[in-house]
Specification:
By secondary structure, the chain is an alpha/beta fold. It has a single domain, classed as 3-Layer(aba) Sandwich (Rossmann fold). It has helices at 22-33, 45-55, 69-83, 106-134, 155-174, 209-221, 231-241, 245-254, 266-277, and strands spanning 13-17, 37-42, 60-63, 88-91, 137-142, 180-187, 226-229. Helix 1 (22-33) links the parallel strand 1 and strand 2. Helix 4 runs parallel beside helix 5 (155-174). The termini are far apart.
Length: 297
Amino acid sequence: MISKQPRILVGQVVAITGGARGIGKETARALLREGMKVAIGDVDAVTARAAADELGGGCVALGLDVTDRASFEGFVSGVEERLGPIDVLINNAGIMPLGPFAEEDDRTTRRMIDINVYGVLYGMKIVLPRMQARGRGHIVNIASQAGKAGYPGGATYSGTKHFVVGVSEAVRGELRGTPIEISCVMPVVVQTELAAGLGTTRGVKNVTPQQVAQHIVAALKVPRFDVDVPRSAGRLGRIAGVLPRGGREFIGRLIRADRILTNVDAAARRGYELRAARSEPGLEPAAEPRRLGESAG
Protein backbone atom coordinates (compact mmCIF):
# COMPACT_ATOMS: atom_id res chain seq x y z
CA MET A 1 0.00 0.00 0.00
CA ILE A 2 1.44 3.35 -1.06
CA SER A 3 1.57 5.87 1.77
CA LYS A 4 0.10 9.31 1.24
CA GLN A 5 2.53 12.05 0.34
CA PRO A 6 2.38 14.71 3.10
CA ARG A 7 0.84 17.97 1.98
CA ILE A 8 2.96 21.09 1.82
CA LEU A 9 1.65 23.73 4.23
CA VAL A 10 4.03 26.54 3.31
CA GLY A 11 2.15 29.63 2.17
CA GLN A 12 -1.31 28.37 3.14
CA VAL A 13 -3.58 30.65 5.16
CA VAL A 14 -4.95 29.39 8.48
CA ALA A 15 -7.47 31.11 10.76
CA ILE A 16 -7.66 29.97 14.41
CA THR A 17 -10.49 30.92 16.78
CA GLY A 18 -9.73 31.33 20.48
CA GLY A 19 -6.12 31.81 19.47
CA ALA A 20 -4.94 34.11 22.24
CA ARG A 21 -3.89 31.33 24.59
CA GLY A 22 -3.75 27.59 25.19
CA ILE A 23 -4.22 25.13 22.32
CA GLY A 24 -5.00 27.90 19.84
CA LYS A 25 -1.84 29.85 20.55
CA GLU A 26 0.43 26.80 20.48
CA THR A 27 -1.17 25.61 17.24
CA ALA A 28 -0.50 29.04 15.75
CA ARG A 29 3.13 28.76 16.84
CA ALA A 30 3.48 25.31 15.28
CA LEU A 31 1.88 26.35 11.99
CA LEU A 32 4.04 29.45 11.73
CA ARG A 33 7.04 27.11 11.93
CA GLU A 34 5.54 25.21 9.00
CA GLY A 35 5.55 28.39 6.93
CA MET A 36 1.81 29.06 7.04
CA LYS A 37 0.22 32.50 7.14
CA VAL A 38 -1.55 32.59 10.50
CA ALA A 39 -4.43 34.67 11.83
CA ILE A 40 -5.74 34.30 15.35
CA GLY A 41 -9.14 35.53 16.46
CA ASP A 42 -10.24 36.06 20.04
CA VAL A 43 -12.80 38.12 21.92
CA ASP A 44 -9.92 39.28 24.12
CA ALA A 45 -8.39 41.42 21.41
CA VAL A 46 -5.68 42.84 23.69
CA THR A 47 -4.36 39.39 24.61
CA ALA A 48 -4.67 38.25 21.01
CA ARG A 49 -2.50 41.14 19.81
CA ALA A 50 0.06 40.40 22.53
CA ALA A 51 0.10 36.74 21.46
CA ALA A 52 0.59 37.70 17.81
CA ASP A 53 3.47 40.01 18.74
CA GLU A 54 5.07 37.20 20.74
CA LEU A 55 4.60 34.63 17.98
CA GLY A 56 5.96 36.89 15.25
CA GLY A 57 6.23 35.55 11.73
CA GLY A 58 3.63 37.99 10.46
CA CYS A 59 0.91 36.49 12.67
CA VAL A 60 -2.27 38.58 12.47
CA ALA A 61 -4.61 39.12 15.43
CA LEU A 62 -8.23 40.18 15.01
CA GLY A 63 -11.12 40.59 17.43
CA LEU A 64 -13.69 37.81 17.21
CA ASP A 65 -16.86 36.95 19.10
CA VAL A 66 -17.64 33.44 17.86
CA THR A 67 -21.19 33.66 19.23
CA ASP A 68 -22.03 36.48 16.83
CA ARG A 69 -22.30 35.55 13.16
CA ALA A 70 -21.65 39.10 11.96
CA SER A 71 -18.47 39.21 14.06
CA PHE A 72 -17.36 35.85 12.62
CA GLU A 73 -18.06 37.02 9.07
CA GLY A 74 -16.05 40.18 9.75
CA PHE A 75 -13.19 38.07 11.10
CA VAL A 76 -13.13 35.84 8.01
CA SER A 77 -13.28 38.82 5.68
CA GLY A 78 -10.52 40.55 7.64
CA VAL A 79 -8.27 37.51 7.44
CA GLU A 80 -8.79 37.15 3.71
CA GLU A 81 -8.18 40.86 3.11
CA ARG A 82 -4.87 40.74 4.98
CA LEU A 83 -3.56 37.25 4.20
CA GLY A 84 -5.58 35.86 1.30
CA PRO A 85 -8.23 33.11 0.97
CA ILE A 86 -8.48 30.84 4.01
CA ASP A 87 -7.15 27.35 3.34
CA VAL A 88 -7.60 26.06 6.90
CA LEU A 89 -10.07 27.03 9.62
CA ILE A 90 -9.44 25.74 13.14
CA ASN A 91 -12.53 26.07 15.34
CA ASN A 92 -10.81 26.08 18.70
CA ALA A 93 -12.76 28.53 20.91
CA GLY A 94 -14.54 26.90 23.82
CA ILE A 95 -15.24 27.08 27.55
CA MET A 96 -15.71 24.42 30.25
CA PRO A 97 -17.47 25.54 33.44
CA LEU A 98 -17.90 22.54 35.76
CA GLY A 99 -20.38 21.48 38.42
CA PRO A 100 -23.40 19.26 39.07
CA PHE A 101 -25.90 19.46 36.23
CA ALA A 102 -28.90 20.16 38.48
CA GLU A 103 -27.10 23.16 39.96
CA GLU A 104 -26.01 24.67 36.63
CA ASP A 105 -27.73 28.01 35.99
CA ASP A 106 -29.29 28.70 32.61
CA ARG A 107 -26.85 31.49 31.77
CA THR A 108 -23.94 29.08 32.12
CA THR A 109 -25.73 26.52 29.93
CA ARG A 110 -26.49 29.09 27.24
CA ARG A 111 -22.94 30.45 27.35
CA MET A 112 -21.44 27.01 26.70
CA ILE A 113 -23.86 26.29 23.87
CA ASP A 114 -23.33 29.69 22.28
CA ILE A 115 -19.53 29.38 22.32
CA ASN A 116 -18.93 25.64 21.96
CA VAL A 117 -21.76 24.88 19.52
CA TYR A 118 -22.67 28.05 17.62
CA GLY A 119 -19.02 29.08 17.52
CA VAL A 120 -18.29 25.94 15.49
CA LEU A 121 -21.47 26.13 13.39
CA TYR A 122 -20.91 29.73 12.34
CA GLY A 123 -17.30 29.08 11.39
CA MET A 124 -18.20 26.09 9.24
CA LYS A 125 -21.19 27.77 7.59
CA ILE A 126 -19.22 30.91 6.73
CA VAL A 127 -16.01 29.31 5.50
CA LEU A 128 -17.27 26.13 3.84
CA PRO A 129 -18.98 27.82 0.84
CA ARG A 130 -15.80 29.79 0.16
CA MET A 131 -13.73 26.61 0.24
CA GLN A 132 -16.19 24.83 -2.05
CA ALA A 133 -16.04 27.69 -4.54
CA ARG A 134 -12.24 27.49 -4.60
CA GLY A 135 -12.15 23.68 -4.66
CA ARG A 136 -9.87 23.30 -1.63
CA GLY A 137 -9.83 23.64 2.15
CA HIS A 138 -9.59 21.93 5.51
CA ILE A 139 -11.75 22.53 8.58
CA VAL A 140 -10.42 21.35 11.95
CA ASN A 141 -12.88 21.25 14.84
CA ILE A 142 -11.51 20.94 18.36
CA ALA A 143 -13.72 18.57 20.32
CA SER A 144 -12.65 16.37 23.25
CA GLN A 145 -12.70 12.81 24.51
CA ALA A 146 -15.80 14.18 26.28
CA GLY A 147 -17.38 14.13 22.81
CA LYS A 148 -17.35 10.34 22.93
CA ALA A 149 -18.69 9.73 26.44
CA GLY A 150 -20.55 11.64 29.13
CA TYR A 151 -18.40 12.82 32.03
CA PRO A 152 -20.09 13.55 35.39
CA GLY A 153 -19.51 17.11 36.50
CA GLY A 154 -19.38 18.32 32.91
CA ALA A 155 -22.74 17.25 31.49
CA THR A 156 -23.40 20.28 29.29
CA TYR A 157 -19.77 20.48 28.22
CA SER A 158 -19.90 16.80 27.20
CA GLY A 159 -23.10 17.49 25.29
CA THR A 160 -21.53 20.37 23.35
CA LYS A 161 -18.52 18.25 22.43
CA HIS A 162 -20.79 15.37 21.32
CA PHE A 163 -22.37 17.95 19.01
CA VAL A 164 -19.01 18.95 17.58
CA VAL A 165 -18.16 15.31 16.84
CA GLY A 166 -21.58 14.61 15.35
CA VAL A 167 -21.76 17.67 13.10
CA SER A 168 -18.19 17.06 11.95
CA GLU A 169 -19.00 13.45 11.00
CA ALA A 170 -22.16 14.47 9.15
CA VAL A 171 -20.52 17.29 7.17
CA ARG A 172 -17.61 14.99 6.34
CA GLY A 173 -20.14 12.59 4.85
CA GLU A 174 -21.69 15.37 2.78
CA LEU A 175 -18.24 16.35 1.48
CA ARG A 176 -17.11 12.82 0.60
CA GLY A 177 -15.46 12.82 -2.82
CA THR A 178 -14.69 16.55 -2.74
CA PRO A 179 -11.34 18.25 -2.05
CA ILE A 180 -12.58 19.63 1.29
CA GLU A 181 -11.28 17.86 4.41
CA ILE A 182 -12.79 17.73 7.92
CA SER A 183 -10.81 16.74 11.01
CA CYS A 184 -12.08 16.36 14.57
CA VAL A 185 -9.49 16.72 17.34
CA MET A 186 -10.33 14.81 20.53
CA PRO A 187 -7.74 15.29 23.28
CA VAL A 188 -7.78 14.01 26.82
CA VAL A 189 -7.20 16.58 29.57
CA VAL A 190 -4.86 19.27 28.22
CA GLN A 191 -2.55 21.19 30.54
CA THR A 192 -4.08 24.62 29.99
CA GLU A 193 -6.05 27.08 32.10
CA LEU A 194 -9.30 25.41 31.00
CA ALA A 195 -8.18 22.23 32.78
CA ALA A 196 -6.89 23.94 35.92
CA GLY A 197 -7.52 21.87 39.04
CA LEU A 198 -8.28 18.63 37.21
CA GLY A 199 -6.57 15.36 38.00
CA THR A 200 -5.66 12.52 35.67
CA THR A 201 -7.22 9.28 34.56
CA ARG A 202 -5.43 6.03 35.41
CA GLY A 203 -3.14 4.93 32.58
CA VAL A 204 -3.75 8.05 30.42
CA LYS A 205 -1.45 11.01 31.03
CA ASN A 206 -2.63 14.56 30.54
CA VAL A 207 -1.19 16.15 27.40
CA THR A 208 0.31 19.55 26.67
CA PRO A 209 -1.10 22.08 24.19
CA GLN A 210 2.12 21.62 22.22
CA GLN A 211 1.32 17.92 21.80
CA VAL A 212 -2.18 18.77 20.57
CA ALA A 213 -0.66 21.23 18.11
CA GLN A 214 1.69 18.55 16.78
CA HIS A 215 -1.26 16.25 16.10
CA ILE A 216 -3.09 19.05 14.29
CA VAL A 217 -0.06 19.72 12.09
CA ALA A 218 0.14 16.00 11.28
CA ALA A 219 -3.56 15.89 10.36
CA LEU A 220 -3.15 18.85 8.01
CA LYS A 221 -0.20 17.18 6.29
CA VAL A 222 -1.86 13.77 6.00
CA PRO A 223 -5.61 14.41 6.41
CA ARG A 224 -7.64 12.18 8.69
CA PHE A 225 -10.91 12.68 10.52
CA ASP A 226 -10.23 11.16 13.94
CA VAL A 227 -7.41 12.98 15.72
CA ASP A 228 -7.16 11.40 19.17
CA VAL A 229 -4.60 12.97 21.48
CA PRO A 230 -2.83 10.85 22.53
CA ARG A 231 -3.45 8.08 20.00
CA SER A 232 -3.73 5.60 22.87
CA ALA A 233 -6.98 7.30 23.92
CA GLY A 234 -8.45 6.39 20.57
CA ARG A 235 -7.35 2.79 20.91
CA LEU A 236 -8.88 2.58 24.38
CA GLY A 237 -12.10 4.06 23.06
CA ARG A 238 -12.31 1.52 20.24
CA ILE A 239 -11.81 -1.35 22.69
CA ALA A 240 -14.47 0.03 25.03
CA GLY A 241 -16.78 0.64 22.07
CA VAL A 242 -17.28 -3.06 21.39
CA LEU A 243 -18.40 -3.67 24.98
CA PRO A 244 -21.97 -3.37 26.26
CA ARG A 245 -22.77 -0.26 28.29
CA GLY A 246 -22.02 -1.95 31.59
CA GLY A 247 -18.56 -2.89 30.37
CA ARG A 248 -17.84 0.62 29.10
CA GLU A 249 -18.93 2.16 32.37
CA PHE A 250 -16.81 -0.34 34.31
CA ILE A 251 -13.72 0.69 32.33
CA GLY A 252 -14.55 4.34 32.98
CA ARG A 253 -14.66 3.71 36.70
CA LEU A 254 -11.53 1.57 36.56
CA ILE A 255 -9.46 4.38 35.04
CA ARG A 256 -11.25 7.02 37.15
CA ALA A 257 -12.62 8.81 34.10
CA ASP A 258 -15.95 9.16 35.93
CA ARG A 259 -14.27 11.40 38.53
CA ILE A 260 -12.01 13.53 36.35
CA LEU A 261 -14.50 16.45 36.26
CA THR A 262 -15.88 16.02 39.77
CA ASN A 263 -12.80 15.61 41.97
CA VAL A 264 -11.30 19.01 41.19
CA ASP A 265 -9.21 21.52 43.10
CA ALA A 266 -11.70 24.39 43.36
CA ALA A 267 -9.07 26.88 44.51
CA ALA A 268 -6.80 26.12 41.56
CA ARG A 269 -9.77 26.40 39.22
CA ARG A 270 -11.26 29.62 40.57
CA GLY A 271 -9.43 31.94 38.17
CA TYR A 272 -10.55 30.05 35.09
CA GLU A 273 -14.15 29.69 36.27
CA LEU A 274 -14.28 33.47 36.83
CA ARG A 275 -12.96 34.13 33.34
CA ALA A 276 -15.37 31.64 31.79
CA ALA A 277 -18.27 33.21 33.68
CA ARG A 278 -17.45 36.53 32.04
CA SER A 279 -17.50 35.04 28.54
CA GLU A 280 -21.05 36.16 27.93
CA PRO A 281 -22.40 36.41 24.37
CA GLY A 282 -23.36 39.77 22.97
CA LEU A 283 -20.09 41.64 22.47
CA GLU A 284 -20.52 44.21 19.74
CA PRO A 285 -17.86 43.61 17.05
CA ALA A 286 -16.74 47.24 17.05
CA ALA A 287 -16.76 47.68 20.81
CA GLU A 288 -13.82 47.58 23.19
CA PRO A 289 -13.65 44.09 24.70
CA ARG A 290 -15.83 43.77 27.82
CA ARG A 291 -14.99 40.16 28.63
CA LEU A 292 -12.10 37.78 28.67
CA GLY A 293 -11.07 35.32 25.99
CA GLU A 294 -12.74 32.15 24.79
CA SER A 295 -9.70 30.04 24.04
CA ALA A 296 -10.29 26.31 24.25
CA GLY A 297 -7.30 26.05 26.52
